[in-house]
Design a protein that fits this description.
single chain
Length: 180
């Protein structure tokens, strides 16, 4: 199978399990593209997550596009992005066609109530793994905590947080960092 077909198939499979959104699929993407196919390294994957998160648009589409572009430029980006988006599109289309038949079904409502806690876990695990990969320690863990609290409690724009972190990292790395 060509790299286009293989990457489309991989991201289609990933897109089938997008319960909880793009962040919930990080462990699946990492397993497929870093460990199984070795299309990117762990370090590149961490960088791609940061870039995909800071770009406008859907996280899952962004990261699949970046990985596809790294593999085979524009055609690779298209194969991966379409592979990621197509399952969600088909599922939403099917739901829209049949929603009126099960919208008040107590079994369906109970299923979705059961899925919610699992989705939280699917988001929490990659967050912890990213913190470890990004070398977040007890010394600097205040940075992501403060950023999250500023966004959540005060409604500060994530763009402001990213810009402040970039400036802070630049200043620290060039002027404050202790010499080793």
């Amino acid at each position: 199978m060509s790299i286009y077909g293989e990457s489309f198939k991989t991201f289609f499979k990933i897109g089938m399990f997008t319960l909880g959104g793009g962040y919930a699929m990080i462990p699946i993407i990492e397993t497929e593209v870093v460990e199984k196919h070795k299309w990117v390294t762990k370090e590149e994957f961490l960088d791609l997550i940061a870039i995909a998160q800071s770009c406008p648009g859907v996280f899952a589409i962004n990261i699949s596009t970046f990985i596809g572009y790294k593999l085979r430029k524009v055609r690779g980006a298209l194969a991966c992005a379409i592979g990621t988006a197509l399952p969600s599109f088909l599922i939403i289309l099917a739901i829209a066609m049949f929603f009126h038949q099960f919208e008040d079904n107590p079994v369906v409502a109970a299923i979705f109530r059961g899925i919610r806690p699992a989705v939280v876990a699917l988001i929490a695990v990659p967050t912890f793994n990213l913190a470890v990969s990004a070398k977040i320690s007890w010394v600097n863990c205040w940075i992501p905590v403060a950023g999250a609290l500023l966004i959540w409690l005060l409604g500060v724009s994530p763009v402001i947080i990213i810009l402040a972190a970039a400036i802070g990292g630049y200043v620290y790395g060039n002027y404050i960092k202790p010499t080793e």
